[in-house]
Design a protein that fits this description.
Alpha-Beta Plaits, 295 residues, two-stranded antiparallel ribbon, 3-methyladenine DNA Glycosylase II, Chain A, domain 3, 2 domains
Length: 295
Amino acid sequence: MYYAVVSLAIMGGIFGLVLAFASRKFAVEVDPRVEAINEALPGANCGACGYPGCSGLAEAIAEGKAPVDACVPGKEAVAKKVAEVMGVEANANKERSIAQLMCQGGNDKCKNIYEGMGFEDCHSAVAHFKGPKACNYGCLGFGSCEKICPFGAIKMGDNGLPIIDPYLCTGCGKCVQNCPQQVLKLVGVSHLVHVRCSNKDKGKFAKQACSVACIKCRLCEKNCPQDAIHVVSDEQGGSVAVIDYEKCTNCGICATKCPTKAIEKILPIDNTVPPKTVEPEDTTNSNCGACGLCK
């Protein structure tokens, strides 16, 4: 009995020493900046930054994979705190971006080829013959963008198109990532001229599907004094007018020349006015938007 107890004690001591050695040998060093950044973040875990919660963003910032101003709801105040932890300066003069809809084919402009089948979102609609719209490239109008926006910046209008509030939109990009038609795009608020069409079919067929479609007439291209807009072709042979925002001066000549009004010049948006303070919805998931299903 005595020998058994002594043997167990000796074995326990040996295993303890082995575990202590292993814990030191294979210990994973934790960057102290991660904890400091995590404390500076608001803790909303909204996923608007594109990372799985605030802790995921903190690690990405510490590793240099995300900028110090990646926290969307935290805005400039949080960016400054994170910048201090990282020992860099926050870019306070950075132009903010907002989502722009590259489609005007609402229920009053774009034809339907069949009646709706009770679709709950755009993803289920596009799986059925690319949706009921005659245009295969436009907004489907089932509100997936509205549902996934964590800041309430998107509301569906009476014509079946999303309406984006430029002073609620934070430019998080979740709607852009989630749109199956890719008709949403993040654009700097200083850019006022937009091609509101994504239809790449030939002009005749595009116009048959939607009365405000780009017909590839190239009048915009020919009249632009800055050479900032061109009818661009893709690998499949389709084409549509595309604006080079770096060259565009917001003169709006292309919008006045467009015969179908597929190009629009909007009113100026004040870049000095930050997005309205709206807390993201508090849910049990991270709402990262990667799968397109949570919201």
